[in-house]
Write a structure and sequence with these properties.
14% strand; SAM-dependent_MTases_sf; eight-stranded mixed β-sheet; Methyltransferase domain-containing protein; Rossmann fold; alpha/beta
């Protein structure tokens, strides 16, 4: 067989049509790369910032309830795009904390003398009329209270703020287990980490990566399962149900990343759609409104992070 370089065709649909899904990934087992990597990084970092703000800080800061790292299953891991994004986010956040500790003068400017303080004190004692504002000038409302949520919700705008990681505790870690029945060689080559050749069918039948139970007590095995650009390949509704229902008893969160809105996940399959902005269950009303959106719609909503044509949805297990 001739040597395969890269992804064969850049159009994944052409690859699937020509070779079939299984055979295609066998051919590119050692060379596969996801061309949407920049967008994947943006949506993952944006989600992790929101997670840290909503609950991570309370869990992992000093006095928090968690003593172990964040446990993640990178399911159908490809060549490790999601793994790399998560590890880079954690490293960047921990390094920013180290810099602030080593150089506190960089961020602490409250004690510096203010050369204009005396002038402002004189001016504050003078009476003056308020500035004239024409009555037809639009007045903006109060600024958003949270650093992660943006008030811009018009078409093409972002609901969520920038993707710069927050300051994380120096000892914060993300413990990632990866599975992929085809591209384990590409994952190992790119990340220098192991990847177990376990398929969707294996996971649906209860097969687990080695040592997955060693950190689990009464709660879930993993905190988060990430599936990037792969879950839509499970085309049989019965097989998808079997997989998701089995996983709902093993993880608290499910993250789906894709260039589209597929697959549709029903609440009877063990998972509830999550409102990422308010960090609450989405509810039927928002789900109905979201379902009316065009498949090609690039507008970001409270339920979906969208960057560079990559979409991220979050689900909460009904079991935890």
């Amino acid at each position: 067989m001739s040597t395969v370089h890269g992804n064969l065709s850049h159009a994944m649909r052409d690859n699937y049509n020509e070779h079939g899904v299984d055979e295609y990934y066998r051919k590119v087992a050692a060379t596969y790369r996801n061309p949407f990597f920049p967008g994947i990084k943006k949506v993952i970092w944006t989600l992790m910032n929101r997670w840290w703000e909503a609950e991570g800080r309370n869990l992992y800061s000093s006095g928090g309830t968690r003593s172990c790292g964040l446990r993640v299953l990178d399911m159908a891991a490809g060549s490790g795009e999601a793994t790399l994004c998560l590890l880079e986010w954690a490293t960047a956040g921990s390094q920013s904390n180290s810099i602030s500790v080593a150089h506190p003068h960089i961020t602490n400017t409250s004690s510096a003398p203010d050369p204009l303080a005396a002038l402002r004190a004189i001016q504050s004692g003078q009476s003056s009329r308020p500035a004239f504002i024409p009555p037809n000038v639009w007045r903006s409302g109060p600024a958003s209270a949270g650093p992660t949520i943006s008030s811009r919700t018009r078409k093409g705008k972002h609901v969520f703020g920038n993707m710069d990681p927050p300051q994380l505790p120096e000892n914060f870690e993300i413990d990632i287990v990866a599975t992929d029945p085809y591209t384990s060689p590409a994952y190992r080559e790119r990340t220098s980490r192991p990847c177990h050749p376990i398929s969707f069918t294996d996971l649906a039948n209860g097969v687990l990566p080695p040592d997955s139970l060693q950190h689990s007590q009464a709660g879930p095995i993993w905190d988060v399962i990430v599936c990037s650009f792969a879950l839509h390949l499970v085309t049989s509704p019965s097989e998808l149900f079997a997989l998701l229902y089995e996983l709902s008893g093993k993880s608290r969160w499910l993250v789906i990343i894709a260039p589209h809105k597929k697959p549709e996940i029903k609440e009877t399959w063990g998972w509830s759609r999550w409102d990422i902005a308010s960090w609450t269950a989405a509810g039927e009303g928002k789900l109905y409104a979201s379902g009316k959106a065009n498949e090609e719609e690039e507008e970001e909503t409270e339920l979906e992070i969208v960057r560079d044509k990559v979409k991220l949805r979050l689900y909460r297990s009904n079991a935890f």
